[in-house]
Amino acid sequence: MTSTSTSTGGSPLSPTARTTVTRGRNRAVVDRAALHALLADALVAHLGVVLDGHPLVLSAAYAFDPAGPDRDGTLYLHGSVAARWLRASGAATVCVTVTQLDGLVVGRSAFHHSMNYRSAVVIGLARPVVDPAEKDRALAMVVDHMLPERSATLRASTRKELAATAVLAVSLHEASVKERAGGPGDEPEDVAAGTWGGHIPLRVVAGAPVPDEDARGAVPPDVTARAVRMAPGGPAASRPGAR
Amino acid sequence: MTSTSTSTGGSPLSPTARTTVTRGRNRAVVDRAALHALLADALVAHLGVVLDGHPLVLSAAYAFDPAGPDRDGTLYLHGSVAARWLRASGAATVCVTVTQLDGLVVGRSAFHHSMNYRSAVVIGLARPVVDPAEKDRALAMVVDHMLPERSATLRASTRKELAATAVLAVSLHEASVKERAGGPGDEPEDVAAGTWGGHIPLRVVAGAPVPDEDARGAVPPDVTARAVRMAPGGPAASRPGAR
């Protein structure tokens, strides 16, 4: 089993008991730069809340600001103000998990099949963002997380649009990151049997931008840039396997 | 805003209040075939549990059996018996969410940026799988979910390996599916301004299998088949955008 630890600087993560990685310790990553790299690469977060006494997990778009107003930076999630889970999670403890799947691990036994991945778990109080300036900025960041530099090309959000959108902020302080990379950690006797083991790299790629029926003019450069960066032959993201 | 509803047969989903889609109703999908198609395409589940009073969301490999022993079929998750969350979720209510990201929606305003995705939310009591035959079968299904037909090529799991692995089963009965596809649902005045709108399709693709340092012989056909099926130029999965 191969463990990859990124060491590209930044202040260390300080996980508490509830975010401490208790399994597969060799896969835990403790520098904040690894957290930031993962959050920069991934596009979807899974938000866990407790609703009516049971857990509820929903996918959401997000953005993050290492210099945000919360301790060690801010993770922003947005949704409709009418969404039950967003209302339920205001001022409650939430868990935001962001996972990037990097590959399938092909072992020589069922037991040693695995996946290569990076996964961050962030736990904290959800702070409803009410300040209009912070809300506007957070929503622009969510757009720019999907499509870098796009928000600057768009008209300002209307008061009605801002009022219809709820934004939650979670501190990046209480966080942990796990990573797995490489091939299987097979049993010596299975290796000795002389069969094949390894892994299949996986990656999210973009196709060509698809215009809607009302589209006029050329594809904007920010959209083209995003599609090219994520094209099958494009530059790799900061995946462990790509370093 | 474009809504895609699959209608490929199967008994309808019967969501309860806690799995009823309350936002974006036009995106709710109510046939069980859409749930099965999503579960077949995706590779990672996010399991939400309540641990020490707060939500915890962790990524996990999974498999599903539409003919499994639980009502409307069974979703299987596996992990180490030492994993805190697996122990915590035995006989507790859990939420398993499976999300497939299908694209980035490029709106003509920040408000109408979105993502194309399919997401299933399954809520139910987690049943620890203790029967050795069911456990062995579930673990084979998890391997085959990653790499179809692979488990039949592997040696049997040892008693030690089975004992070291915990498997949770969750009924697929209480489930909901949301889907979004297509371009943005822009405001008429933004469309009238005559700019570009549309979407960028996204897809998970595989690279060539990477042998580990002990690998001998040819890449097994099941591994090659998986990599080819997920190759950038390979056949599309059952994504709404691909139909």
UniProtKB/TrEMBL annotation, chains A, B:
Q: State the Pfam families in the record.
A: Pyridox_ox_2
Region Disordered: start and end of each range? Answer: 1-23
Q: Which InterPro entries match?
A: Pyridox_Oxase-rel, Split_barrel_FMN-bd
What residue spans carry the Low complexity bias annotation? 1-16
Record's protein name: Pyridoxamine 5'-phosphate oxidase family protein
